[in-house]
Amino acid sequence: MRIYHLLLAMFIVELAIAQVTPNGLFKSNMVLQRNQPIAVFGKAVSEKSVEVIFKSKSYSAEVIDGYWKVFLDESSAGGPFELTIKGRNEIVLSNILVGEVWLCSGQSNMEMPLKGFMGQPINGSNLAILNSENSQIRLFEVPRRISKTLQNDLEGEWKICSPMTASEFSATAYFFGKMLQEKLKVPIGLIASSWGGTPAEAWTSKKITDKEFPNFDNWYKNEAQPQKFPNGLYNGMIAPLIPYTIKGAIWYQGESNKVRAKQYAQLFPAMVNSWREEWNQGDFPFYFVQIAPLKWGGESQAHLRESQLKSMNKMTNTGMAVTLDVGELECIHPAEKQKVGERLALWALAKDYGFEAIQYSGPVYKSFKVNKNKATIEFDYAPNGVTNFGKEMSGFQVAGANKIFHLAETKITKGKLEVWSENVPNPIAVRYGWDAWVNGSLFNTAGLPASSFRSDDWEE
Fold first, then answer.
1. Residue 76 and residue 326: Cα distance in Å, rounded?
2. Which of 135, 219, 244, 289 has the most CB atoms around its CB within 10 Å?
3. How far is C-alpha 280 from the geometric centre of its chain's CA atoms?
4. How far apart are CA 138 and CA 191, in angstroms?
5. CA distances from 322 to 161, 441, 456 (A)
6. pTM score, two decimals?
7. Distance between CA 310 and CA 454 in Å, rounded?
């Protein structure tokens, strides 16, 4: 009997070791990306190959060093389908949809759930939660995880969108996905991977930081919060997702980098490019949110917004949702997450899904011309000119050769913006929103706010 029990135990252990396991993203209720080869991957200890069956077609994946990966044929949107993974064991995943998959990452403003934080609301959240029942939207929350080494698996479940699940999910991501689903009429999968109070370097690979930002080691010698360390969240919360096939990513972060705002203009593009390189899907769409004004945020916030603007102009296939009009005086988490999510969705609808008639960006400073003491400012992304929609105009400054800025008066005539100050007879520089707090008052006629900007590059 002892020998029998020993053999039985050995058989059970061998069976457990031999089991094929897919990456944690591959669960029932998931969404797979349409119109692209679909990556399916995972672990297998003793098998030499793994069979994957999807839509009545069988695929064979070779096991190399305990891991396997296979790309399924492109598929049009639809479902529900089953996906079967076979080794010595068999796993059947059900209720799978094919549609559009977006990664949603960043810090607390991306993390902020639809129900809001304690004492910090989301405008319209109660009705949004009430109306959130939608089996065509699926939600996956990546668990918080810090790691010193690259991870290749994760825990989690795909959840069908409902009042219970949506209320706990990222508000910005939800409103983004909801608008896409309404317009595209295809399933939407949202993967949320975010952690409040974290800098961009935590979400960046070690390969990039070691090569381009070696001083990070000195910067973090006395840091007590490990989630802020370079590479830790990339290793634990981004790397395990790769190479799950996605359409693109949205990003809501920046406040934790404002003390090194100038550096962010190099760091953020490096992070984006490293993600694209590791996913090996080309320059997939990457849309991000410019941080909002805040009374106690300091002027460094304006510099960070400038770095974000420079990043958009520098990188391919990116776009920026401006929040200069929805900031809150005392709260770093603006309640207008619906506007933020929908502004991100406008970029995707216009640039990736063929909605060519819509405007998707607020005005972006282009140049200015001086006539006597008045500067007329030109903007991109304002085909019908600019307007203030009846709001009091504020936040404009002009300076002369002495580099002293004065508050400017403003006038909009037939969509053209003029700024001037009696104290500056010969203006050579203009700025807008270059303060800790500004209530954005400049828009294009589509209602999208202008980014803060400056025409100069003077050192402060």
1. 38
2. 289
3. 18
4. 9
5. 27, 12, 21
6. 0.95
7. 12
Residue type, 340: V
pLDDT for residue 11 is more than 70: no
pLDDT of residue 8: 44
As given in the structure block, the two tokens for residue 405 are 């800025």
Where in 24-144 does DSSP place strands (E)? 31-33, 38-44, 49-54, 57-64, 67-72, 78-86, 90-106, 134-141
Query: Do the beta carbons of residue 173 and residue 124 sit within 8 Å?
Result: no
Strand partners, 367: 378
Q: What is the mean pLDDT of residues 78-101?
A: 97
Kindly state the tokens that stand for 408: 């400017």
- Tokens encoding 243: 């190479």
User: CA-to-CA distance for 237 and 191, rounded, in angstroms?
Assistant: 11
Q: Give the whole-angstrom CA distance, residue 304 versus residue 200.
A: 12
> What pLDDT score was predicted for residue 4?
46
Q: What are phi and psi of 310, to 5 degrees?
A: -60, -35
Q: What does pLDDT average to over the chain?
A: 94
* CA angle 295–301–303, rounded 5-degree value: 145
What mean pLDDT is predicted for residues 216-229? 87
Nearest-CA neighbor of 92 among 26, 17, 137?
26
Q: What is the DSSP string of 374-420?
A: EEEEEEES-TT-EE-TTPPP--EEEE-TT--EEE-EEEEETTEEEEE
Sheet containing 409-413: order of strands: 364-371, 374-380, 416-420, 409-413
Paired sense of beta strands 134-141 and 188-194, if any: parallel
Burial class (CB in 10 A: 0-12, 13-18, 19+), 357: exposed
